[in-house]
Design a protein that fits this description.
Strand content: 25-35%
Number of helices: 11
Bound molecules: NADP nicotinamide-adenine-dinucleotide phosphate, zinc ion
Structural class: alpha/beta
Oligomer: single chain
Number of strands: 17
Order of helices and strands: EEEHEEEHEEEHHEHEHEHEHEHEHEHE
């Protein structure tokens, strides 16, 4: 089927309307009419060719929610009319150790929702800034939030799982002091989730104007990271720090805040490297730096269910498809409260 999408044919060109095709529905496929798609900073990195290897045309978008329009003959988990989500993964090898454990995000054959290899035209996957998508049932998530929250559920499919997974893996919970660095799309979800898990949560921001919001989002304390006195007051005190910043910066300033055996996990994926951290800052307290990428499909469903139970959604600003470039410009300035979501129904016929 031919549908409308928002994408670009070169890194230096603005995103604009284009036509793309979706494959016919196979036996294990689910066809979804997309209603909303969240705008992740990764979309911008990819569309503008800031990471190596962007394939054009590029249609970003991996925070997809919509309604099932058609299912293949062997599909059992989803039916026409269901509200569903698709995150960053649309395929994987399905037989390696990672896939067997539900860690498809770490499968060497993982296929991303955009820019991944596929037999479908044009030879790489095209994402959710589009009217419809066809996805193998294994990678389709169930949404149990009330329907009127659907737009605010979309960002959970990337920003939600990318923060939930490391918070769980590194044991955020009662009695733990957890920092979240960068209060954007990922960071604001990190605050909500770490708070709901019962941790003592400290928000780190470069934006003085986000102080009050960070407290409302779930932080117990807020530190403006440019203020050295505020930073020093938290020296050697954190069990875990989740760093979501989308640009290179001094990691040592945050490593010094970890207590013995503390870990700082990087989820932000800047286009160029951070300055190398000082080794002594790590060895003196047996501190660790780690990374984490989104989360597997079972954990993504667990996160969606956890959020539905706790009444957690994203704080969003809705945009029309033709406002995407203005939204990117504001996202680059850290000026979004706290995730843009595109209303796909405005894409027109
Ligand atoms: P975002 O909404 O733009 O938020 C990033 C935040 O970082 C900003 O709001 C800002 O918060 C802070 N920041 C501080 N200095 C900055 C600077 N010079 N430039 C940009 N931001 C700065 O982005 P996002 O969607 O949350 O994504 C964050 C990063 O995570 C991106 O690199 C993205 O590609 C990556 N990502 C990784 C994964 C994964 O699986 N690991 C998944 C999704 C996204 P303050 O104003 O509070 O300082
Ligand atoms: Zn993302």
């Amino acid at each position: 089927m031919t549908i409308l999408a928002i994408g670009t044919s070169a890194g230096e060109q603005p995103l604009d309307r284009m036509e793309i095709t979706r494959r016919a529905v196979g036996a294990h496929d689910v066809a979804i009419d997309i209603i909303y798609c969240g705008i992740c900073h990764s979309d911008l990195h990819q569309a503008r060719g800031e990471w190596a290897g962007t394939l054009y045309p590029c249609v970003p978008g991996h925070e997809i929610v919509g309604r099932v329009a058609e299912v293949g003959g062997h599909v059992t988990a989803h039916k026409v009319g269901d509200l569903v989500g698709v995150g960053c993964i649309v395929d994987s090898c399905q037989h390696c150790a990672e896939c067997a454990e539900g860690l498809e995000n770490y499968c060497d054959g993982m296929v991303g929702t955009y820019n991944g290899p596929t037999a479908d035209a044009p030879g790489h996957t095209l994402g959710g800034y589009s009217q419809a998508v066809v996805v193998h049932e294994r990678y389709v998530l169930k949404i149990t939030h009330p329907e009127d929250q659907l737009a605010a559920v979309a960002p959970l499919l990337c920003a939600g799982i990318t923060t939930y997974s490391p918070l769980r893996h590194w044991g955020a919970g009662p009695g733990k002091k957890v920092g979240v660095v960068g209060i954007g799309g990922l960071g604001h979800m990190g605050l909500k989730l770490a708070h709901a898990m019962g941790a003592h949560v400290v928000a780190f921001t470069t934006s003085e104007g986000k102080r009050a919001d960070a407290l409302a989002l779930g932080a117990d304390e807020v530190v403006v990271s440019r203020n050295q006195d505020e930073m020093a007051a938290h020296a050697k005190s954190f069990d875990f720090i989740l760093n979501t910043v989308a640009a290179p910066h001094d990691l040592d300033a945050f490593l010094a805040l970890l207590k013995r055996d503390g870990t700082m996990t990087l989820v932000g994926a800047p286009a160029s490297p951070h300055p190398s951290p000082n080794v002594f800052g790590l060895i003196m307290k047996r501190r660790a730096i780690a990374g984490s990428m989104i989360g597997g499909i079972p954990e993504t469903q667990e996160m969606l269910d956890f959020c539905a139970q706790h009444g957690i959604t994203s704080d969003i600003e809705m945009i029309r498809p033709d406002e995407i470039e203005a939204a990117y410009a504001r996202m680059l300035k850290g000026d979004v409260k706290y995730r843009f979501v595109m209303d796909i129904r405005e894409m027109g016929a």
